[in-house]
Amino acid sequence: MTVAYDTSLAEYIVGVFDNPSELAIVNQPIVNLESGQVVGYESLARFGNGMSPERVFGAADSFGLGKDLELFAVDAALKSLPWLPSGLRMHVNVSPTIVGAPELRQLLLNHDLSRLVLELTEHVPVVDYGRVASELAVFRNRGARIAVDDLGSGYGGLEIVIATRPELVKLDRSFVAGIDKSSSQCNVMASLIRFVSGFGGAVIAEGVETTAEIEQVSRLGARYAQGYVIGMPRPGFSPVDAAAVVRAAKQTRRVMYGADLVDLIERVPVARDTAVLSGSALGVVVDVYRRPLLLWVGWENGGRALPCTEVEIGSSTDICRRLAVNRMPSHRLDPLVVVDGSRRTVGVLRVESLLAESDTMS
After folding, report:
1. Which pLDDT value is given to residue 50?
2. What pTM, to 2 d.p., does this model score?
3. Does one domain contain both 224 and 269?
4. End residue of a domain, out of 249, 277, 303
5. What pLDDT does residue 123 have?
6. Could you write out the three-class secondary structure of 321-334?
């Protein structure tokens, strides 16, 4: 879709080059969800006319000024690199259209690239991803890391990730918003995290705005996060409350416990490998997110992995009994696996305990 822009906006953009104070650089922190510590800051452009950066850069593209304005913004961001706290990296946005530009190479090679992450934005279609990857290699060989920005909102999607094999992939806000309430979003994000992890990359969940979103993206395996609930974009390099981030990332999801069920739950070992459970009488094989895969029943000379039946921790004993007896006869007495609202394994429920509870109540 072509967007028409007023010529006065073109005049404004030209004026930015003559009046650099019209472009301000703010920095938003990116944190490690395990430690809560800041690992870097994304440098973002803000314009004096109050318009969104997306609108101004979009207008610049339409007027043939996109490359010049982007290089101008990169140069402005790099000017604050000497004040970046030691050990952290600055994330700078670059589009595929300027990656091979001699002007960008001249700008970047004047700095210590080991302190930079080049975030590849993609708001126009890319014709040759191989060319982009080879041009990025020039900076990567000098120590820069590569990130793909806003995966899910641009044109190429996974194609550019496959071509560039970035160290970092930022998942767009559209994946993150309300993820604590959407199992379909969780499934998509979990798949993307597995894909990125497969080639050695890590995921940054972008645009987190609630502590519940922090907890959920952390549980799904995102290593890093960025968003207003962590830190707003501000001039300079603002600190972050690391302890608050860790609390949010590891908060216990509130689940309505069924009073008649909770006392019957038995805690058992959980593991991702049956070999770890070989010495246990009862256990649960789980995936990386602690979701149950199989029930492990141990015997004197070994054990056996069985299919498992899940029940949520808030279920009534009556529902659990019905789930148990409606299974195939050979599995009716297998323990049920109790999960929380995020399908994480809590423990098991022995059917004989349910039946004994029923006898007590009758």
Report:
1. 83
2. 0.70
3. no
4. 249
5. 66
6. HHHHHCCCHHHCCC
Residue 2 belongs to a domain:
no
pLDDT digits (tens, 9 = 90+) for 59-92: 888 888 999 999 999 999 999 999 999 999 999 9
> Residue 180: inside a domain, yes or no?
yes
Which structural domain range is residue 293 located in?
Answer: 259-361
Asked, for residue 209, whether it belongs to a domain, the answer is yes
Helix (H, G, I), strand (E, B) or coil at 169: strand
Cα separation, 154 vs 160, in Å, equals 10
Q: How many Å apart are CA 281 and CA 320, to the nearest integer?
A: 22
Say which CATH number the domain at 76 has.
3.20.20.450
* 291 and 308 Cβ atoms separated by less than 8 Å: no
Q: Nearest Cα to 2, choosing from 61, 66, 67?
A: 61
For tokens 């004994």, name the residue: 356
- Distances in whole angstroms, Cα of residue 8 to Cα of each of 19, 68, 70: 16, 18, 19
Across-strand partners of 337? 310, 348
